[in-house]
Amino acid sequence: MPQPTYDVVAIGNAIVDVLAHADDAFLVRHGCAKGAMTLVDANRAEALYGAMGPGAEISGGSAANTVAGLASLGGKAAFIGKVRDDQLGEVYRHDLRAAGVAFETPAASSGPATGRCFILVTPDAQRTMNTFLGAAVELNPEDVDEELISRSKVTYLEGYLWDRPEAKEAFRKAAAAAHDAGAKVAFTLSDRFCVERWRAEFLDLIQNHVNILFANESEILALYQVKTFEEALPRVRGHVEVAALTRSEKGSVVVKGKEVVKVPAEPIAKVIDTTGAGDLYAAGFLSGYVQGRPMDECGRRGAIAAAEIISHFGARPETSLQKLVAEKLKA
To answer: CA torsion sign, 152 to 158 to 161 to 163?
Structure first.
């Protein structure tokens, strides 16, 4: 087998994040479900954009945040996602490449505009997301570059993309290509509401196609329809090789066979914005996983990367994560 070119190739929604501060009154006034990700149409997107305060525009999307984080950690990463051939699409492609991520998926020449997510960050650091998926949902099996996947150690799939039949087919095609190449498939549940919409299909995907699962506590409880985290652990152990489960300030738990590793949260002075915490945890974890590091170190890398992200505004690192992780692990 040829040596892999990439550590991770991610498949997900290509979304431009528009971040702005807001108070709870703004959320109530505009009918936003605090702390959740809500899908909106083009008209609702325009209305919210007009009502928001000054915002920062950053090329984002959950899986793209993860591979950008992986690149900051010194890893080799690629991305498969759909943008339109419009101004935001060009901005998105440039930003992702500038972060060190290969992105060659052809832009759509017709159909909806490049997607965008309006992220409202309240003073308690909670983020409320309203997402116009736009061109992102046009991803289809033809966009899956099997040769690229065959040259990657891990193919990382984003649960947010699961809504359309074409995307589901694309995911299954990607998973098959990865396994044919002897590579691993990772999957993130993304959001509790995704899990509630697609629970049966997610369980099938996880049991039959996924090696590494990422989820937070509310997502894993929803997946197995249990009331406590402790009840979920034996369920997930039987479904995947590795599960990395985050619990906010309680840290994370990594399950690999009979091995259960508890990883404390990395201490920080103040939580500024929780946007991207799970995405960067996955980046840190995978940076260790592809190097064959022990599970406790993989979890620690994830915790360090997540802590850096929540200590500032936005879902992209503001310092070299590779340097930061090296310093923290040495300490």
So the answer is: positive
Q: What pLDDT, on the 0 to 100 scale, is given for residue 19?
A: 87
Shortest CA distance to 143 belongs to which of 181, 187, 117, 108?
Answer: 108
Q: CB of 197 within 8 A of CB of 171?
A: no
Bridge-based pairing of strands 252-256 and 259-263 is: antiparallel
Of the pLDDT bands very low, low, confident and very high (cuts 50, 70, 90), residue 17 is: confident
CB 138 within 8 A of CB 167: no
Closest CA to 156 of 189, 180, 129: 189
In the chain, what are the helix, strand and coil shares in percent, each to the nearest 5? 45, 25, 30
Per-residue DSSP letters for 129-195?
EEEE-GGGGG--GGG--HHHHHTEEEEEEEGGGGGSHHHHHHHHHHHHHHHHTT-EEEEE---HHHH
Give the separation between CA 281 and CA 222, rounded to whole angstroms: 20
Q: Is the pLDDT of residue 36 over 90?
A: no
Q: Quick one: CA torsion of 156, 160, 161, 165, rounded to 10 degrees? A: 120
Question: What is residue 17's three-state secondary structure?
Answer: strand
Write down the pTM of the prediction: 0.90
* Residue ranges per structural domain of the chain: 6-13+61-112+134-330
Identify any residues that bridge with 196 across adjacent strands, giving them in sequence order. Answer: none
Return the CATH number of 6-13+61-112+134-330, one of 3.40.1190.20, 3.20.110.10, 3.30.565.10, 3.90.1640.10.
3.40.1190.20
Q: Strand 152-158 to strand 6-11: parallel, antiparallel, or no bridges (unpaired)?
A: parallel
What sign for the dihedral angle of Cα 40, 25, 273, 91?
positive
Q: Which residues pair with 78 in a beta bridge?
A: 9, 102
